[in-house]
Each structure stands twice: as structure tokens, then as C-alpha cells.
Amino acid sequence: MISYSGTMEITDRNLDKFKVWLLERGRTEGTADAYATNLRSCAADRKGLTHRLVAGALSPNTLRSNLAALRAWALYIEDPKLGKRLGDIRLPPARRIHTKQPLALDTLRTLIKHLQVCKMPSEAMRQVLLIMAIRGFRSGDVLRLRRTEILRALDTGKLIYEGKGRKRIEFAARPFRAQLEALSQITGWNRVRELIAKSDNPKVASVKVWRAARRAASEVGIADMNPHRLRHTFATRYLEQLGGDPNAIIKLQKFMGWESMNTAARYVDAVSQDELDAIGAGLVSGLLE
Fold this sequence. Notes:
This protein is mainly alpha-helical. The protein folds into three domains: about 10-85, DNA polymerase, domain 1, CATH 1.10.150; about 105-225, no CATH class; about 240-289, no CATH class. It is built from 16 helices and two strands. A two-stranded antiparallel ribbon has the order 1-2. The radius of gyration is 21 Å and the shape is globular.
């Protein structure tokens, strides 16, 4: 049991009720689970519930996710003092501490070929990883796909599903049709995650996907692999394909199904500082001619 000496203890039982409250207000299961995990970590800090937000040891994005969880908790327990304290906290800009590196195209091709033939925990896992590698899907989005959505996509050519934040997302199914067909041939399931793990906790399936991706990548010499690196690689290469298109960031945002333009803008992290300096130097040179 983890507790907080405020108006309500942070216990597993109370967190389960909190997650139900979040779901009733339109949050996804993944968000509810993430908030509960963040609250456990905040409550475990001996220096206080909000100490993690000011200690300076966490990345900006992690700080924001902790703050969002605490604000939701303050609303849930109707604690105005905690809400005011959280409102007074100012966090640094949401930028990565370490730049994520996309895979080279040849490396990605090698990984895809390996995924098609290597030993896997199940055929469903193979298809999940292939969809992520081929089309850059979030692992959570693939795992929450319904069987009915996949069958409809095979019939209409459009995969329409409820994505992160309960957003309606629509993609052409043709690039990964073979993988959808392979999943459709497996019977006795409602959501893809049921084919990966028997647990009702979505995180269990996500962890299994992460482990399988890491193992397969290591077999072809790729280090530091995690499922989101596949999405990062796809988005970065898509941006490269757009070249000098002035609307590149907008197109990337729409194609990847992101809610915020800020998310798409983060992919300039893949551009080296030397390249940015060279562009700037060229511009200055042109102005001085």
C-alpha cells in the first residue's frame, strides 16, 4: 500500500476507483494506467507528493506526465489546496534530454526481413511488430485494434479505429494488408492485445511487444531498440521524403495522426546541428552576395 497524508490515501483500491473516474471522463485505458503509475511514484517520494516535479531529476516530458496525473488526482479528490500548489509549479519546455536516433533505411529493411522469418512468441506478435515497422504505428494503437475494425479494413481498404485519446483515425490499409489478413485468420479474439497477453492490464501486452522488438533487433545487431523507435524512424523518413515542402510539418502531423503540431515539430531533432548550421550559413551567404 502507498499512501499520501492528504484528503485521500493513494492505495491500489483508490487508484482503481480513480481510473474508473478517468475512463468516465473520456480518458483511455492507457492514460488511466499511466496516471496511476505516476501517482504511485509521486506518493513513494519521502519528500512529498510534488517533490518529483521540482527535484530536477526527470526529463521535461516525464515531469509533464506526472503533473497531469497529479492535477487529475487533485480534481478527483476535490483538494483545492493541492490544485493550487500544482498550478503554481512551472515546468521547463517539453524537449527531449537525449535526441532519439532513427534507424537507417537499410537497417530498417534488414529488420523487417528478419521479423518475417525469425522465431517469435506467436504469429500474432510477428504481425504486430511488422505493422509497427512498416507503417510506424504506436504499439498501443495496434494492440487496441478490434477484430471488427480489421475485417472492415480488409473489405473497404480503410483502417478506421479509435486511437490515442479516443481520436478517430483513418489510414489506407494497403501498405500492411498482408499483416491484417494474417491477424484476421486467427479466431477467438476481440482486440489484438488478447493475442499477445491474457492479462486484462494493457501494459502486460505492451511490455511483451517491447521485449520481442528488442530481442529481434538485437539478433540483427540493432542496439537500444524499443517499439517507439520504429514510429520515430517512420516519421523521420516520411519528413525526409517531403524534402523542401513548406507544409511538411503539417502533412507529417496529419499522416501520423498527431493531435498537436508540437509533436510533429519534435522530429527536427533528427536533423543534426551541423546540417542546421549549413542551412543558416547558406542563407547568410545568399543575403551578402
